[in-house]
Structures are given as structure tokens and as C-alpha cells.
Amino acid sequence: MRLAASFLVAAVGLVGATHWRASAREASAEAAYPPSGQFVTVDGKRLHYEMKGTGPDLVMIHGASGSLRDLTFALRDRLTDRYRVTVVDRPGLGHSDPQDETSLLAQARFIKAGVAQLGVKDPVVLGQSYGGSVALAWALDGGPKALVLVGSPSMPWPGKLDIWYRATDNAIGRAVAIPLASAFVPDTYVRKAIDAVFAPDLVPAGYDDFLGTQLTLRRATLAANVAQVNALRAELVEMEPHYPSLGLPVELIHGTEDTIVPLHIHSQPLSQLLPNATLTVISGAGHMPHHAHAAEVIAAIDRAALR
Q1: Per 3-state DSSP, what percentage of the chain is helix, strand, and coil (rounded to 5)?
Q2: CATH of range 40-306; options 3.60.150.10, 3.55.10.10, 3.40.50.1100, 3.40.50.1820
Q3: Vertex 50, ends 285 and 80: CA angle to 5°?
Q4: Stretches in the chain below the pLDDT threshold 50
């Protein structure tokens, strides 16, 4: 009885400490990285966006565990002299509200409806990593004039996701792992994870601090991200048979050393299914070529706009 009582007290204490620390870290993150743009509301949910520049419309969608800050760090401002660039936080990430439905199609429709309120119609859509999967869903639903997919998952892959996503693929795992990660994952671990995502390319100076990874560690953001990523493969299985129907211009950009979304599993076979696709392979590049090889990505955007 005493042992059981001791365990109960310890468990309650751990839960309380975890909640307190996670709440404190969330408050600190939101104070350090407040919304940088504006909001539009779609069906009662807020979409956070930044719009800058003049010219034809370009919409840019970030990847998993990120926010629009990844795309505004350096890439966006190299395009605003000739495009009106709208960069969005995907639902549940950054400062956009989470949706009840987390599918690629639901996200695409949410973003499409939000930017339409800003006068954006039939844009060129760039998606990086998971954001490219959302862009593909948008195209299958109708709307973009062209796509630019940067290191994007598009095909069902063999094997399983890493241990974090496997651990959070059920209600019990999420209830335990997400609060603990939010409260106790150290900054050093996050920086190593960013290094791994960029490898073999180097992380640009100042990127870690600008990105605001503390926002990603909020409990609601972690929950939204794992729900989206864990559902991704099954959604791509459903989407794959419809790719040959996409006649719009598609520019595919992929690094040969991308171990997060391997070239031979995704962009190479996708390029054979799309009737109007151009594949640019960047030798030696990792998963983030829009930073380390921005000139090639910008050239692809310009080609997509012209095509």
C-alpha cells in the first residue's frame, strides 16, 4: 500500500512538473516568436500568412515540424521583385489554428480558401518536403497554374517512419510522449536534428534562431504534426493513381543526398507519372536545397511561371 501510494505521488508530481514546464516553454516561445504576418479566417479557423512583393502570384508551403519562417529566412525576399509571394503556416503549425481534419486535401482547401480571400487565384504553388504533398493535393483538387516541389514526398515508401512517429501513432503514445517532449527536449537535441535535416549541406548562420523551433515543441503543434505525418503514407497511396491526370507544369527539385525523402523513391518515379514534369537533380544536396542551393530552386520557380 505504501509503495503504491509512493508511486502515485511520484506520478502525480511528474505530471504536474511536466505540465508546468511545458506551459512555461510554450509561453516563452510565443513571446519570443509572435505572429509575423496577418490572419484570414476560414470556417472559424485562422490562417497565418505573410504577403510581400508584386507580380504573378506565388504561394509557398513549408514542410513538417516547421513554419513559414523556414521560407522567409532567405528564399522569399529573393523573389519579391517579380512575384507577389504569399507564405503560409500550415494548419496547426506556426500560428495557424489546427483543423479538425488533418488530411492533405483538407489542408490544401484551407490554404486555397484563405489565400483566395487575399485575391490569390490560380497561383504557382511551391511546396517544400511535406508542403509539396499538400501542393500535390491542391493540384489534384484543381487550382494552381504550376507546381514547384522541393524534396517532397509523393510516393508510398517502404518501411516505417522513425521511432518518434511510431511512438505517437496511438492515443497512449501521444498522451505520454508529446507532453514529455514539449517539456524536456533540450535545445542541443533540436540543433542536432536540424543539422541532420540539412546534411550534408550546412545550416545557414542564424537559421536556428530565426526559425523558432520552440514553437514546434508546443504540445498542440507536436500533436498536429504527428497526426499529419503519420497519415501521410496512406494518403499518398490514394493519390498516386491520379498523378497522370495532372497536366499542369511541375518542376521537381531534389538532392541526391536527401535521406529524409529519398530521390529514387519519390521525385524520380513521380517524374515518370506526370505528363508535364521537369526533374532537376542537385548532386550532393540534402533535404533543404532551397537554402543551400537556392539559385536552382529560384530558376525552377521562374521556369514554372513561364511554362
Answers
A1: 50, 15, 35
A2: 3.40.50.1820
A3: 65
A4: none
